[in-house]
Amino acid sequence: MANRWKGEVALMVNGTRRNMKLTLGALAELEAALDTGSFIELVERFESHEFDTRDVLALIVAGLRGGGWDIESEDLISADIEGGPIVAARRAAELLTLAFQLPEEAD
Fold first, then answer.
1. Is 21 in contact with 6 (CB distance < 8 Å)?
2. Which position among 2, 34, 50, 106 has the lowest Cβ density within 10 Å, counted as fewest Cβ atoms?
3. Helix (H, G, I), strand (E, B), or coil: what is residue 97?
4. Are 91 and 20 in contact (CB under 8 A)?
5. Cross-strand partners of 12
6. What would the pLDDT profile of 20-38 be if each residue is shown by its tens digit?
7. Which residue, among 7, 93, 105, has the nearest Cα to 51 in the 3D structure?
8. Would you call 20 helix, strand, or coil by DSSP?
9. Phi-psi region for residue 93, left (φ > 0), alpha (ψ -120 to 50) or beta?
10. Do 74 and 66 form a contact (C-beta atoms < 8 A)?
């Protein structure tokens, strides 16, 4: 079970529940993978609903790696994510939000 107090978000991948978390290392990998090179720009794209599938994929891969799963982007190309792209985008946005939310703000 994902622990929101630790910034974890659950995602079902190929029928297996995986916890995602944006650790400091995962954030560094994410920043390196971004086309813009700026993490702040990624946050702004999600806030303005102008993100693309590469943003979602990069966030999910970083989160899964931060959650302890040794995975690469290529591994998710043919993966079945329960709920499809809409759920993937929602979980990515939730992951991003929790990574920078103070514990008092989390529900």
1. yes
2. 50
3. helix
4. yes
5. 17
6. 999 989 888 888 887 666 7
7. 93
8. strand
9. alpha
10. no
